[in-house]
Amino acid sequence: MKAAVLHDYDEALSNPVFVTYEDVPDPAIKGPNDVIVRIGGAGVCRTDLHVIEGIWRSKVDLALPHILGHENAGWIEALGKGVTHLKVGDPVICHPLITSGHCLACRRGEDMHADESEFPGINVNGGYAQYLRTGARSIIKLPETLSPKDVAPHTDAGLTAYRAAKKASRHLLPGEFAVVIGAGGLGHIGIQVLRALCAAQIIIVDRADMALKLAQECGADFAVKADGSEVDEVLRLTKGKGAEAVIDFVGEGDAVAKGLAMTRNAGFYYIVGYGGKIDIPTIDMITSEKTIVGNLVGTYPELIELMALADQGKVTLATREYRLEDANTALHDLHHGKVRGRAVLVP
Prior knowledge:
With 347 residues, this protein is of the alpha/beta class. Helix 4 (157-169) packs parallel to helix 5 and helix 7 (230-237) packs parallel to helix 8. The protein is 27% helix and 26% strand. The mean pLDDT is 95.
């Protein structure tokens, strides 16, 4: 099969070629619960850039050469002997983790905390290819209204945004405020989820005019330019108190400090983006009673819930399609802020 393959790390992201389009062996069924998916769409994520930078080397056992791609959807191509609920040709979306289902975390539905797991695109070969090996536990059948290439980024970007926004929606009441920092690939999804699940007023903060416009199209009530005065503007909109919930899809640079400053006393700061650090004096934590919540990718049931919203037209993805052989162009466009929403590779 054809695949876009990572051969070398690039810590500065300065090389013109990140991945090489080449022939590689087809993935094979290894166990009775394995599934081979013919890829219909593979999302291009900023995490892919972090893998190329080498940031994930300290977190996972990753051997090069490696096939990126952890946001995958397509059609069933082949099934292990133990898989009876799927058939060849079924349109499907893949939860990003492959797990056995035997450990306590899996039985509680928290597969992302499984004792043992494979993460296609992160520690095993992913979907920047024509075919992908995954597990039957990871597969969700798609309704007829949804095409694999149109929903593939939901498997990480959408699911992660959904998980954070769902947590926030549980305590947001009418008349309260939610701030979303970053209206890019995750943020534009988070806005729609908040709009679907609660009645809070939504303030979006971003430095890019393209992202702010997209945010307003997705249902944001207020768009604030991240030009150095964003904290003051959010405090003005919230009458000096800050927002009950702040969801930070950036998580680096000065976004963290500003996100905490936008969070009102007894409010919740949800951190999704990564690369920075949270540094807050303990006395400030005590006196403000703010809650800081980490957010990993969501659960299998949450991906089903998100597909229900997508099926109803309440959450849609802004996507830009690239051919699989143009994976380098997609990655460079993402790196340089040229992608509106999410990029998707289509074999």
